[in-house]
């Protein structure tokens, strides 16, 4: 299985990419890449963890770079014109990734609020254990109100999750549209001799 993933931090790919047990075997005719942009740890990748680690090894200077594994061969491209075109091809996916990140932030904030409500519910539950019947009724009303707030946050979380899934489908569609352009660009770099073979 292959992934197209916007990676915002250099540590993120470890969680976002997956190990590929077929890295040396049946997957050699497919193109994998890691595109590092200038001045940041941002990258766009399609491949597996082995690809990311190999790319990172070749990016000693921290500058922009494109690592490609295709047909069982690995290349590093540092040509500014090729890198600019690669970034332009990936721009729609990168923008969509930023939108997914913003949604993720909203989901995280909702989760924080749900957690705080859960803590309040736990405290009420503890108070209920030692309460009188009269106190129990009041605490029950408070618990019900917290449950209603928790339910509303759950609905908001579900709506954000549905939007996130929609953006994920769009990310896949954009990746499919970019594949032929990206493959042609890499083949051009290899033909022009600006792709350095590294294996």
Automatic annotation (TrEMBL):
What is the top-level taxon of the source organism? Bacteria
Region (Disordered) residue spans: 110-129
- Alphabetical UniProt keywords: Signal
Signal peptide annotation: 1-18
Name the record gives this protein: DUF2968 domain-containing protein
User: Which species expresses this protein natively?
Assistant: Sphingomonas lutea
């Amino acid at each position: 299985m292959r992934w197209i993933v916007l990676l915002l931090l250099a540590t993120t790919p470890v969680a976002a990419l997956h190990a590929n047990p077929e890295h040396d075997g049946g997957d050699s005719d497919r193109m994998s890449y890691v595109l590092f942009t200038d001045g940041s740890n941002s990258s766009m990748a399609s491949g597996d963890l082995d690809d990311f680690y190999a790319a990172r090894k070749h990016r000693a200077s921290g500058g922009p770079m494109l690592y490609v594994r295709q047909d069982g061969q690995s290349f590093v491209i540092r040509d500014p014109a090729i890198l600019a075109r690669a970034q332009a091809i990936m721009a729609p996916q990168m923008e969509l990734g930023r939108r997914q990140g913003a949604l993720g932030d909203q989901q995280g904030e909702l989760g924080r609020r749900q957690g705080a409500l859960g803590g309040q519910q736990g405290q009420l539950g503890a108070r209920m254990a030692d309460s009188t019947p009269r106190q129990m009724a009041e605490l029950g009303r408070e618990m019900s109100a917290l449950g209603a707030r928790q339910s509303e946050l759950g609905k908001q979380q579900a709506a954000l999750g549905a939007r996130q899934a929609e953006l994920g489908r769009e990310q896949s569609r954009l990746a499919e549209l970019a594949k032929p352009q990206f493959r042609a660009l890499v083949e051009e770099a290899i033909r022009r001799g600006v792709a350095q073979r590294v294996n």
